[in-house]
Amino acid sequence: MHNKVVFHAMKALNSFGFPVLRFNFRGTGLSAGQHDEGRGEIEDVQTALAWLKSEFTLPIFFAGFSFGSATGLRAACPDPDVKALISIGTPVEAEGRLYSYSFLRECAKPKLFVSGDRDQYGPHALLEEVVAQAAEPKELVFVPGDHFFEGHLSEMRMTIESWVAEQLGR
Q1: Domain count, the chain
Q2: Within a 13 Å sphere around the CA of 38, how many CA atoms are in the beta-carbon half?
Q3: What is d(CA 18, CA 37) in angstroms, rounded to the nearest whole number?
Q4: Cα–chain-centroid distance for residue 55?
Q5: What whole-number distance in Å separates Cα of residue 67 and Cα of residue 94?
Q6: For 25, phi and psi rounded to 5 degrees?
Q7: Range(s) of the domain holding residue 108
Q8: 21 falls within a domain
Q9: Is residue 19 part of a domain?
C-alpha cells in the first residue's frame, strides 16, 4: 500500500479526479486477519469495490500491483461497475507460486498490463502468453526496469495516465 509503485499509480488515477482507495490485504501491515493464499483476498477487493460504489458515483477503474493485480483482476473482471482494469507488475511466477489468468479469456473490459522489462516475477515470454490469451481490448506495455520499476516510475505513471486518458476519450 505504501510502496512507490502503488503511490505513483494512485497519483496517475487521482490526476483524472478519481478518488483512490489503497488498502492492505488481510494480514499485511496493520490489517487484521491472516493471508488466505488469494481466496479471502478476492473478498477483500470485492468489499473495497462495494465501498467505492456506495461512496462515489464515478466510473471505477481497478488498478492493482503485483499480488494485488493478480487477486484484484479476479474480483474486478466480473463486476459490472468496474469499467477498466490496470494490472501493474503482473506476476506470472513468484517465489514458487504460479499464477493462472485463464479467467481473462472471458473478461471483455479494457485492460492495461504494465510491466518492467526486467520484471523477475513476470518474464516477457510468460506475460506475453497471459496477455495473448486475454479477451480484447487489451494492451501490454513494457517499461524499463524491474518489478518495482526502479529508476523508471515516471515512465510507468505516464503509461497509465496516457491509457486512462484514452479510455476517457481525452
Answers
A1: 1
A2: 15
A3: 30
A4: 21
A5: 9
A6: -70, 165
A7: 4-13+38-167
A8: no
A9: no
Q: Tell me the whole-structure pTM to 2 decimals.
A: 0.92
Burial of 26 (0-12, 13-18, 19+ CB in 10 A): middle
Average pLDDT of each block of 10 consecutive residues along the chain (170 residues)? 89 93 65 62 90 90 94 95 97 87 98 97 95 98 96 97 96
CATH of the domain at 118: 3.40.50.1820
Asked if 25 contacts 48 with a C-beta cutoff of 8 angstroms, the reply is: no
Give the pLDDT of residue 136: 98
**Residue 40, helix vs strand vs coil:** helix
Residue 86: closest CA among 19, 140, 49: 140
Cell 497471459, located at residue: 130
| In-domain check, residue 22 | no
Counting every residue, how long is the chain?
170
